[in-house]
Amino acid sequence: MSNVPPEDKSDEVWDEFKWEEFMQKQDRKVDRLMELMERYHDDPKCDEIIAREMGWTWLQEKEEQEGDDAWSRYVGDEDDDDLEGEEWKVAAGIEEDEEERELRAYKKLPAFTLAHEFGLRAHKFVEQLPEKVR
Asked: Over the stretch 84-104, which tens digit does the pLDDT of each residue have?
């Protein structure tokens, strides 16, 4: 594990107290995100509200620069690839339950998408490490 903070470009080496402070700050951000997701999950503009409340201006700025709907890259379209190969359930008369619908809705959130991609990259990185280092 590196002693250089993830988002810091300086040469400063962090000690355990600095890392603890950083992790506590990240925990507060996650708590705030979960609170907002719970509060606004039924709102049609849920993603925009949460981004604004969290101070995620980068997405709006990118959208303005590119002149297109930057949200669509993260949220996805309504065709929903998650249902691919699931047509047999419809043909068999099997209904999707509420939990599956909610899970699919969360998968469309930008924060979920980014976290999932990060998790996959982290997993791939760990898999490339020698067995005795894991």
From this structure: 666 766 677 777 677 777 777
